[in-house]
Amino acid sequence: MSISLCIGQCGNQVGAELLALSQHGVTADSQSHRPCILVDSEPKVVSAIADRVAGVHVEQSGRGNNWAMGYHQTTNVALTARVLESLRKEIEPSRWHWRWPRKSTPRGDSRHVPQGVHSNGCIAPSLVGDSPLQNYNALFTLRHLQMYSDAILYKDNDDVARLVAHWRGATGGVSLTEMNRLVAGDWAGLFLPSDKRPFDLGSFVTQTCPMATVKFVDVRTAYYTQRPRFKPSDSRLVALLPSTDDAAGLAAATKQLVASYPYPATQSPCIGRSIHVRGGATAASLTSVVKAIERAFPAPNWTEQRIATTVSMAPPVATSGAVTVSANGQTNAIPMLSTFVSRAAQQLHAKAYLHWYKKYGVEEDYFHETLDACLDVVDAYASFV
């Protein structure tokens, strides 16, 4: 088993959709307790999803869109202690304590929990966000993710909105609910157990993040069904394709999945790749899927050429099958990170908004250290990929 921490408004909204998916299809059971801990600085989101989870920790004041107030541990020490205590209570009875994913961007701390394999699912803000602190906040968060994660499942709001339209096959407005459901649907291809087997986070990290300095993984899932196309309002999943044949459905889903990536991502070397197929697959159809991913995401000569592939016979949720592709290469993360670095550097040069962070203990030197750390990530991808 794994233990999930859902932190903040975004983390809890996506976590709620994952919890809903876990109650349907092959993953459904009579379990009244879910190893999931909800954490937020205000109650509006958590209060709607607090049932059937391991713990809920909420404060009332919010964090004012300021990373220092939320994560620099000058104002939230008590909240952190309560969360770690809940985590300890979940870990101690479990034999699987060394693997736990987080749908969040928390600061790591191994003094109170076993040091093991950690993943974080994060969703970066839109590049047209309305907060002047956004560039600093994003870089501080990404620096801590890089420091304390073994794998970072990366999404960004701009790309998620584009993907909703891609799978829906229509233009028009995109709702926040649709975006949350799409992210949950993508990550469900990994996190939700199948055929009574848990997701093996340790193997996943080995397959997709062979280098400790490059760990941003783009995870996407396409679902196919033998029933007519679902409307987004009728399903917990957005990415659904109609099919009357499982083999044809798997091939079509893979083709659509590759088409959903930004063009540059499918033309650059990919240092880590994995495929998860649910609903079964013939040898021929599985071979075609692997070849399609090999063409879309070629591996550098110096790394493993074989793509790790897992097949589960049981179908996911209410669909006939699904294919999940995890790729660590030139995803949206690096262009986004470069943009945030450039913007934050300009603000820092002008010493803009520094006082908002200094009052919570973040000095100017930390800004420069963070810029350097994030530039190191960009440079690492440039040298390895």
TrEMBL record:
Gene Ontology CC? centriole; cilium; microtubule; nucleus
Q: Does the keyword GTP-binding apply?
A: yes
Q: Name one GO molecular function term.
A: GTP binding
Superkingdom in the source lineage = Eukaryota
Places the protein is found: Cell projection, Cilium; Cytoplasm, Cytoskeleton, Microtubule organizing center, Centrosome, Centriole; Nucleus
Q: Does the keyword Nucleotide-binding apply?
A: yes
Biological process terms from the Gene Ontology for this record are:
cell projection organization; microtubule-based process
Major place of residence: other
Recorded hits in InterPro entries, A to Z, give: Delta_tubulin, Tub_FtsZ_C, Tubulin, Tubulin/FtsZ_GTPase_sf, Tubulin_C, Tubulin_FtsZ_GTPase
Indicate the segments forming the Tubulin/FtsZ GTPase domain, all copies: 3-92
Q: Which is an annotated Pfam family here?
A: Tubulin
**Which keywords annotate this record?**
Cell projection, Cilium biogenesis/degradation, GTP-binding, Microtubule, Nucleotide-binding, Nucleus
Functional note:
Acts as a positive regulator of hedgehog signaling and regulates ciliary function.
Family of this protein: Belongs to the tubulin family.
Name the UniProt record assigns to this protein: Tubulin delta chain
